[in-house]
Each structure stands twice: as C-alpha cells, then as structure tokens.
Amino acid sequence: MKPIKIKSRKKSVNSRLSIKVMAGLKKFLIASAPYLISLTVIGVFFGGVIAYALNSSTFQLREVRILNIGTLTPEQSFAFCELVPGENLITLDLVNVQQMIKRKHPEFKEVLVHRVLPNRVEVMLKRRTPVAQVAYGRYVQIDKDLVILPGSSAVPFKNLTVIEGVPVPGEGLYVGVSIQDSHAKKAIRIVEWVKQSNILRGHLLTKIDIGDPKNILLFADSDIEIRLGNNHLMERFKILDQTLRNVALDSSKIRYIDLRFDDVVIGPR
Known about the structure:
Elements: H1 9-55, E1 63-67, H2 74-81, H3 94-104, E2 108-116, E3 120-127, E4 132-136, E5 138-142, E6 148-153, E7 161-164, H4 182-197, E8 205-209, E9 216-220, E10 224-229, H5 233-244, E11 254-258, E12 265-268
C-alpha cells in the first residue's frame, strides 16, 4: 500500500502571507516612487551645489574684516586671523580661527567669527575694560575678572584705582594671566561697589592697600586714609556713608577715618 501524502497546512498559510507581503510591497513602491525620485533629484542637485562650492573660485577667501580695533591693512587683517587669501570659505574652520584669536589675544573678552558669502570673513571683537591697576614696580591694568591687560607704565594710569600688596601670579605678569589672589578679588569688589554706590560723593578712590589683609586701607583723593579692617565690610561702608553725610572729605582737614572700632575715629591734619 502506497503512503498517502498530506499537504502541510502551515506551508499553505505561509504562501498566502508571502503573496500579501509582495502585493503590499508593490503598492508601496508604486505609491512612493514620486517621492523617491524627488529625493534622488534633490540629492543630486545638492551634491552638485556642494561640489561647485568646493571647487569654484567664487567662494575663495578674498577679504577679512576686523571690527572694533581700528583700521588694519588687508595684509594685517589676514595675519591677525592667520588666514591665507584663496582659502575655500565653505570648508574654513571658523571655530578654530576663533580659538586661535582668543589664545593669541587674551585682551579680548569676546571673539565672534562670521562667514559672509561669497568670499569674506568678519571678526567681531570686544575688548576687556580696565577697572583698576596693580602696582608691581610698574603699573599693570586689570579688568573685573582680574585678567592682566596689555601695556604697563612706570607711573599710574589716570582715573584707575591702584591696588597695592597683590602677590605676583605664579604664571608671571603676562597679558591674559588671571590673578587668583582672594584679597585682590575683594579689592576689585570694593572698587566696583564704591563706583556704583558713589559713597565717596564725587571724590576719587585712588588706592587700595591690601598688603595687610587684616587691615584693608582705602585712600580717597590720594591722601585721605580710610581704615576698613577686614571683616563685615558692608557694615563698615554703611557707617562710612553715615559719617560722610555729616563730614565733608576735605584733605586739608582730615588725615584719616578709622572704621575698625565701635566709634568712628577721624584724625585731623
């Protein structure tokens, strides 16, 4: 007796599923064909545009503009950014240019480099503003972040408070070095607060001596000494404010004002 062959029901189900999948795939391809063609055309177009931009002389660097530092010759502008005429503007690494300028010119607080098509680079600079000067034998200007700025002088700069008693930074007195001394930071806060509050009523804060951290000394109009001590400075400034409401800062009459004790002591000339 010959064996009877039984068709697999599982095989039949799989066949029907395969037919449905193929039919669905065919419908999908037909429906999406316009989109696929459009994407292909767009890809080819942009590929052509990129290839043109990378090889065309239209996008070769021809001009560098440095803003906010006066007039530079074209040669000086290219050298400032370490760029070369003819470089491709599309592939130019602007971040690298920006970092290089900051590294070589720490006197600028902000550096922004822009690509201006078809062939120009613009560099926007913001200088650090000096708020005080530190006496190190010569006078060195610093900004509010205590960053050393270019230029020094054998005599004090005009209209900048002198800070004395600041130790020389471990990195040396180089442009861009940030002074980390805590007492110097306190002195800068005093400079800014005195300026904002106008507590000296139009008189100049000419010097702060932090050589003795336990006894900070201020000098108004060069020769009136204000003895602050070191602690509770805001309270001492309130007392100074009350004192100056009744006593005029007259250098011909006042030698010092001592705020370190319960009662204010005014030393006459």
